[in-house]
């Protein structure tokens, strides 16, 4: 099953495998009646803390309900690149869809739908143990292991695409701190030029409101490229009507069809 990531300049959205989409739709249809008829109960707990485990989405896969970044007609919220320092904004204008690392099947540093759990996709799975939170995405075989037993960041590992993460509980909210990112990714994808530096720092707050609802807040800092921290709009996810994500493979064979950045017009020669 193949999945090829294309940017907005070509398709305006991700090109997903038809078989994958049909499979997810079948899962949703089969389970939706029971999941919608049952009211949400209290959040399950593990060792005194909320258990964040589950498959989470916005109520639909790509192309379905819940996929839009903001409600129709609503003002577009501030995005990472809106806060670029002047030099960074100028550099962004020189980049094109072909420069987006995701066309080479690399993950984002954060997430296209403002949800790091999703990465480039629209659904993700959390597996919680007494010491770790494991986040799995369907796209690009991405995962992240987040310890929350009090250990500090690791200072002996090289920079990574998704950063080094540690967590701790503040009441019923899991706070996740991410540092040590490689600068070779973008914050997002789909035609959004959003390069960052190695100073990227992300703090996320996860709160399971009830058995079916997960709220996520995040603040993204990058003092080398941003004028101020980016406060990500709060995201509200819904427990999906299936309990396993599936693999969506990626191919970068379509990279040759992605256009280059538009070049500025040549200045006319002076007489």
- Read across the widest sheet, the strand sequence of neighbours is 6-5-4-3-11-10-9-8-7
What percentage of residues falls in helices of 4 or more residues? under 10%
How many strands in all?
A: 11
Query: What Rg do the Cα atoms give?
Result: 19 Å
As for the number of domains, it is: 1
User: Structural class from helices and strands?
Assistant: mainly beta
Number of helices: 2
Mean pLDDT: 82
Oligomer: single chain
User: Which segments are poorly predicted (pLDDT under 50) over 5 or more consecutive residues?
Assistant: 1-37, 267-271
Distance between the termini: 60 Å
What form results from the Cα inertia axes? globular
- Characterize the largest beta sheet: strand count, sense, and whether it forms a barrel: 9 strands, antiparallel
H and E order: HEEEHEEEEEEEE
Q: Which strand-content bin applies to the residues?
A: 25-35%
């Amino acid at each position: 099953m193949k999945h090829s990531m294309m940017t907005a300049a070509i398709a305006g959205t991700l090109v997903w495998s038809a078989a994958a989409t049909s499979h997810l739709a079948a899962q949703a249809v089969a389970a939706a009646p029971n999941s919608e008829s049952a009211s949400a109960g209290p959040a399950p707990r593990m060792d005194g803390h909320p258990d964040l485990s589950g498959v989470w989405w916005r109520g639909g896969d790509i192309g379905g309900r819940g996929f839009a970044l903001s409600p129709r007609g609503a003002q577009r919220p501030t995005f990472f690149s809106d806060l670029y320092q002047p030099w960074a904004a100028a550099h962004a204008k020189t980049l094109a869809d072909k420069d987006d690392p995701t066309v080479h099947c690399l993950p984002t540093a954060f997430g296209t739908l403002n949800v790091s759990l999703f990465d480039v996709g629209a659904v993700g799975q959390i597996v919680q143990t007494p010491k770790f939170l494991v986040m799995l995405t369907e796209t690009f075989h991405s995962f992240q292991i987040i310890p929350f037993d009090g250990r500090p960041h690791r200072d002996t590992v090289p920079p990574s695409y998704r950063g080094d993460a540690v967590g701790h509980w503040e009441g019923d909210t899991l706070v996740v701190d991410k540092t040590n990112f490689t600068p070779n990714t973008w914050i997002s994808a789909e035609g959004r030029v959003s390069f960052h530096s190695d100073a990227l720092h992300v703090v996320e707050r996860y709160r399971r409101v009830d058995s079916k609802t997960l709220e996520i807040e995040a603040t993204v800092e990058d003092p080398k490229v941003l004028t101020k921290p980016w406060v990500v709009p709060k995201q509200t996810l819904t427990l999906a009507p299936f309990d396993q994500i599936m693999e969506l493979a990626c191919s970068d064979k379509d990279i040759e069809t992605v256009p280059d950045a538009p070049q500025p017009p040549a200045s006319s020669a002076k007489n």
